[in-house]
Specification:
The chain is an alpha+beta fold and 394 residues long. The protein has helices at 3-16, 29-43, 59-66, 71-83, 128-131, 148-157, 166-177, 236-244, 266-273, 289-295, 328-338; strands at residues 91-92, 109-114, 117-123, 139-143, 146-147, 184-190, 193-200, 214-219, 222-227, 252-256, 281-287, 300-305, 317-321, 342-345, 354-359, 366-375.
């Protein structure tokens, strides 16, 4: 099951029945809530983003933690606590009916802060925002009728925190993706035109039609293989192998990763990369800061991809990426770069590291956040990898 499908299923389950009704009296939910700060400070791989090298917990949330007395309240608190990281790769293992949409898996607008404005820099292909005519360069003027800058400030104030810089861009993307149980009311501006107020369905209510894990097509002399947000789907390896079997000698091969926001697993990534190497080849560097914090001894290792017998493909390979290339999609991109393929397109999602599941002791609730740092083989952090400009028509 893909992360996207898992999140959708969990959202439905959470909406259908209350959490933890059977064992509510036996669980110290407040203890679990209070434990999150220390858990993140011990295991989060990117504490250097924060002053003092600790989770940026606020006094407001510390006070909230002591009042948590149910599974549902614990889940809501965990969502709020993880939001303080301003990290799209930090999520809970379950969700509530009105939780914020997981971004970028369920987002269609990439928004950056541009001085005092919030500018759309990418729109997801085939999404509600794209269908409504939102394009890169538009400005996000308001969310639910509230000026965008005020909406962002209120987003952080609700947590007892302050924004600024990239934290505000993070908040704008979350606000634009909206909550799972309602449409989004967003106002956009474009130079020389009046403001447009749009009501857009969220991406939980407007899922795309069923697509196979992989689609392929021949365009001129190119043979294109596109992954349909399927890097966590066990059927993807067989689908990719079947698509590769249709490639003709002399065709330029294009691997399209522009719709892989939900990530996946390394088995699928290594299966794909294994078709393009003749010998064991390094493709990704892992680092586990938590081990050094607890023992004083650093831990780092390099992962290899192995050739897949009888499946080697020679010739040029181009890999296309964009803002909806996320997590394992980004891992595949840096892996292809390591073996000599051209990786081109827009900047990727920049999701931090590899997420681990962390189970809270009392309730069993799982929270997920980056626990490993990941880098390209040349030492470039995965989230800072810059693809080449798009060199050929799509």
């Amino acid at each position: 099951m893909t992360l996207r499908a898992f999140l959708f299923t969990m959202a439905a389950l959470m909406a259908a029945q209350p959490l933890g009704a059977a064992a509510a009296e036996a669980v110290d939910y407040a203890a679990d809530a209070r434990s999150i700060e220390a858990l993140i400070s011990a295991n989060y791989a990117y504490l250097d983003r924060f002053a003092g090298g600790r989770m940026p917990m606020t006094e407001r949330l510390r006070a909230e933690a002591g009042r948590v007395d149910s599974q549902r309240e614990l889940l809501r608190f965990a969502e709020r606590a993880l939001t303080l990281l301003a990290d799209h790769h930090a999520i809970t293992g379950a969700s509530l009916k009105d939780s914020w949409a997981v971004f970028p898996s369920y987002g269609d607008l990439w928004i950056e802060r541009d001085a005092a404005a919030y500018r759309v820099t990418a729109v997801r292909e085939g999404s509600p925002a794209a269908s409504a005519g939102v394009t890169p360069g538009d400005r996000l003027l308001a969310v639910e009728g509230k000026p965008a800058a005020q909406a962002v400030a209120d987003f952080w104030a609700d947590l007892g925190a302050r924004g600024g810089g990239e934290r505000d861009a993070f908040a704008a993307r979350v606000l634009a993706a909206g909550r799972r149980d309602r449409p989004r009311l967003l106002t956009f501006g474009r130079a020389g035109q009046p403001a447009r107020e749009l009501t857009l369905p969220n991406l939980y209510a407007a899922p795309r039609g069923q697509l196979p894990p992989v689609t392929s097509s021949t365009v001129g002399r190119e043979y294109r293989i596109r992954f349909n947000d399927s890097l966590g789907d066990d059927a993807t390896i067989a689908a990719f192998d079947a698509a590769m079997g249709k490639a003709r000698a002399g065709q330029r091969l294009v691997i399209d990763l522009t719709d892989t926001p939900s990530g996946g697993n390394t088995s699928i990534a290594r299966a794909v990369l294994g078709c393009f190497v003749r010998r064991p080849t390094f493709y990704q560097v892992h680092n586990l800061p938590a081990e050094e914090r607890s023992t004083g001894i650093g831990r780092q290792w390099v992962e290899q991809v192995l050739p897949r017998k009888g499946r080697y493909r020679a010739g040029p390979v181009v890999v296309r990426v964009g803002r909806w290339t996320g997590s394992m999609g980004e891992g595949l991109a840096i892996g292809f770069d390591a073996i000599g393929a051209r990786v081109e397109g827009e900047r990727m999602a920049g999701l931090l590291g590899a997420i681990y599941d962390h189970r809270l002791e009392q309730s069993g609730l799982i929270i997920k956040f980056p626990t490993e740092r990941l880098s390209a083989t040349d030492g470039t952090p995965r989230e800072k990898f810059v693809p080449e400009p798009l060199a050929s028509p799509r």
